[in-house]
Amino acid sequence: MRKLFVTAAVVLVSVFVLAQESFARTLIVNTFGGAGKYTTIGAAHADATNSDVISVQYGQGTYRGAIITKGVKILAASPGINIDLPGSAVSGRSVGFHVIDVKGVRIQGFQFRNLDLPIYAEGTQGLIVNGNTLNYAVQAVTLWDCRGSNIVNNLINNLRSTNKGGGLGVFVGSSSVGISLNNKVQHNWVAGQVNGGGAAYWTAGIALYGEPASEENSGNKVLSNTVALSGPAQLAGVMLDQYAKLPNCVVENNQVKNNQLKNVAFKLVENPQGLSAACGNDVSGNVLQSKLLGGAVEVFPEPVSSGGTSLIRPF
Asked: N or C: which end of the chain has fewer CB within 10 A?
């Protein structure tokens, strides 16, 4: 009898989910407006419900980002749709899409220009960032305390760093009050120049990070990305960085595999020294591409410090 009851409950939940999806609407955004259309992404989001699609069409000028608190899909209807104006701010830095404590958001197909933090997510689940171009960002894609995200097929051109931090392409971090789990960063291209910065902190194409007192940053996969950056002396292709000294493990049980690393002086960096081996991080199959070497050679984490501090300065 209990089995029949549980089965019936599962069926009812499934029907409810399917009904929600079948009633998902497509909200059209166009700067020209018109009947049934919105002129801003923020206005469309205000009227949206979970599972709705916000389709952003080509219009006059550029678009402003928005604070996203609903499980919507925000899709560029055609190539070349620009998000140049901030929808939010963090620590005085301009944010394009600020995704906060929500499940099932998708951001796809946009071009971001000159925003400090184009995509900034906190406490999200199942976020998908796919096929975007992010230009001249301080921190292009930011995941704080997120779970199950997929950052895939994005092009990150040129980075900026400031006297307070940044210079990061894709950042996956766990805060002192949060957990980061099972995010994927794959098939992205991070290229160009890192401008600004100084000797006080490092910059990186992709970074996994744990704050002081952070509980866990694990199960993440950094797979088959290309990092081709040049700039400051303290520039890493991929960085694994935690405050806690060993044997404490925060950045643990992650995979950093099959990434192509070019130009950067430091290819793979771990902090503290021995982090990968001690904390079960699988770092393998990553190669340095260099004409001087006459081919490709596998690279492994380079020791930097004994820990107790961080190397990067994220926003």
From this structure: N
Rounded CA separation 75/96 (Å) = 14
Q: Using one digit for the tens of pLDDT, what is the confidence trace for 121-151? A: 999 999 999 999 999 999 999 999 999 999 9
Amino acid at 1: M
**Exposed, middle or buried by CB within 10 Å (0-12, 13-18, 19+), for 200?**
exposed
pTM beyond 0.85: yes
Map tokens 């701010």 to a residue: 89
How close are the terminal C-alpha atoms of the chain, in Å?
54
Higher pLDDT among residues 255 and 12, named by residue? 255
Structure confidence at residue 104 (pLDDT): 98
How far apart, in whole angstroms, are the C-alpha atoms of residue 257 and residue 283? 6
User: Which segment of 2-6, 198-202, 209-213 scores lowest on mean pLDDT?
Assistant: 2-6
Beta strands in 126-219 (DSSP E): 128-130, 133-137, 139-144, 150-152, 155-162, 165-166, 168-174, 179-181, 184-186, 189-196, 203-210, 216-218
Helical ranges in the chain per DSSP H:
2-22, 41-47, 275-278
Tokens 């950067």 -> residue: 264
As a whole number of angstroms, the distance between CA 177 and CA 210 comes to: 11
Q: Which two tokens stand for residue 217?
A: 């940053």
Q: Smallest Cα–Cα separation from 230: which of 178, 271, 265?
A: 265
Parallel/antiparallel/unpaired status of strands 216-218 and 179-181: parallel
Nearest one of 227, 223, 283 to 251, comparing CA atoms: 283
Q: Which of 8, 17, 31 is nearest to 71 (CA)?
A: 17
Nearest CA-CA partner of 158 in 134, 189, 193, 132: 193
